[in-house]
Structure formats: C-alpha cells, structure tokens
Write a structure and sequence with these properties.
Helix content is 35%, strand content 28%. The protein is an alpha/beta fold. The longest helix is centred in the N-terminal third of the chain and has 11 residues, at 32-42.
C-alpha cells in the first residue's frame, strides 16, 4: 500500500493565507511563504496553494507568489485558482508548481483536462471538486462555492477521471472549517467510483478525524488548513498516530 499523504492547504486572498467556515467568514492565518516553509521543514508530504478569489475576480493566480513559495520548499506543490488554459498551466509549472488544481474551468470545458494531461502528464492535473449535500446526493459547486452547477458529484468524479485527471481533491462544503470530521460517506462513495487517488478536504478537527478519513473514507491523502496553521495539531504527531493505527506514512525524521 502506498504511503498516505498529509497536505497542508494555503487558501490565499490578496497575498495572505486565510481560513473560513463553509467558505465564508475568512480570517487571516499568516504569511503564505512563512507557512509553506514551515510545513516543508515539519514533514508535510505536499502543499496545496489555492488563490480562492482568482476565479471570481477574473484574474490569474499570483504567479510571483508561486515562484517565491517554490524557492522556499522542497516538497511537491499544487497551485490552483482561476486557471483557464493550457498556457496558464505551463506558466505555473515553469514558476515552480509540480501540479495544478482545476475546478470551475473544467466544469465549463472538461476537455481542458484532456489537453492538459496530454501536454504535461496526468500526474500534473488535479481535479478540484467542491461538493455540497442535496438530499441523498451531492452537487458540484464552482466559483469558490457560490454557484450550484446541478452536476452530481459521483458522476463528475467519474468524468474527470475519464478525461485524464491524475487525482481528485474533494472538498465537502458542508464540513469545511467546521472541525466536525470529514464526510466519510461522501469520500467512500467517490473512492468506490474512481481508481485515481483521492484527497480528502473539509472537516479536519482532530487526529481521529484524519485517521477515519483514511480507514472509513478510503482517502489517499488528507488535506487540512486551520489545524495546521494555528498549531492545533502538529504534522509529526499526526503521522505518528497514523502509523500506530497501521496506516502507512512517511514519518518525520
């Protein structure tokens, strides 16, 4: 079994790291370069940087900030926010990103996944999906969670895998920032539907939540923000606990 990954997430607005609840009520969480450097040193497996207002404000991701972060870390780095084209993906990869996260743009143009995967490889393409519960199912939301597409999440997950995405970053909008635990029912349904890696996002509050996302939700990676930003959980402690639970992880030296 492959090692499960721990991935801190930097949600960026106006050059600062922010965090909210259910995509609302954003508060400052620190300098993204300083946080990225800290996480790299503390044993995070990867890092995700999302310019959360890039799509709504119709501007490109902050390429210069990407360059600065990339110079200060030694772990794989995913960048998302407002990416509309293969050329923009190329710019970000040249700036130092290892992968890109695509969300709103691939709902409008699913073949952007195929074109990008053909040019850069599927391993560079992460399909980010924001999900909100609707009765017994979940719908896909875009534009920083402000627009309900009406798409069924499970069907969309199968679609992005078929188009060539290398992995899925699945965020439960219902759980985002609540620290009430991941939506393991949703995660397990998606894990059953696709064969590509699944990153769990939305709801991390305790070490047990992270363990459950792997054991019950069948996630391949855990993404979290505030529990790491505000040192509620240390990455090394989380990995030690996961190892004791029999989950394969890359332990911090």
């Amino acid at each position: 079994m492959l090692a499960k990954r721990i991935i801190p997430c930097l949600d960026i607005k106006n050059g600062r790291t922010v965090k909210g609840v259910n995509f609302l009520g954003l508060r400052d969480a620190g300098d993204p370069v300083e946080l990225a450097t800290r996480y790299s040193m503390e044993g995070a497996d990867e890092l995700v940087f999302l310019d959360i207002t890039a799509t709504n404000e119709k501007r490109k991701t902050l390429v210069q900030l990407v360059r600065e972060i990339a110079r200060n870390i030694s772990i794989p780095f995913t960048v998302g926010g407002g990416i509309q084209s293969v050329d923009e993906i190329e710019d970000l990869l040249h700036a130092g990103a290892d992968k890109v996260s695509l969300n709103s743009s691939i709902v409008r143009d699913p073949e952007l996944i195929s074109r990008s995967a053909a040019r850069f490889g599927s391993q560079c393409i992460v399909a980010a999906i924001d999900a909100r519960s609707h009765g017994d199912n979940w719908n896909v939301y875009i534009k920083a969670g402000t627009v309900d597409t009406g798409k069924n999440v499970l069907e969309w997950c199968r679609d992005v895998a078929r188009y060539g995405a290398g992995e899925i970053l699945l965020t439960s909008m219902d759980r985002d920032g609540t620290k009430s635990g991941f939506d393991n029912h949703l995660l397990s349904k998606v894990a059953e539907s696709v064969s590509i890696p699944l990153i769990a996002s939305g709801g991390a509050g305790t070490i047990e939540h992270c363990i459950d996302a792997v054991t019950s939700g069948h996630a391949d990676a855990i993404l979290a923000a505030s529990i790491f930003h505000f040192r509620e959980i240390e990455i090394g402690d989380l990995k030690q606990a996961m190892a004791r639970a029999g989950i394969p992880v890359r332990l911090v030296a």
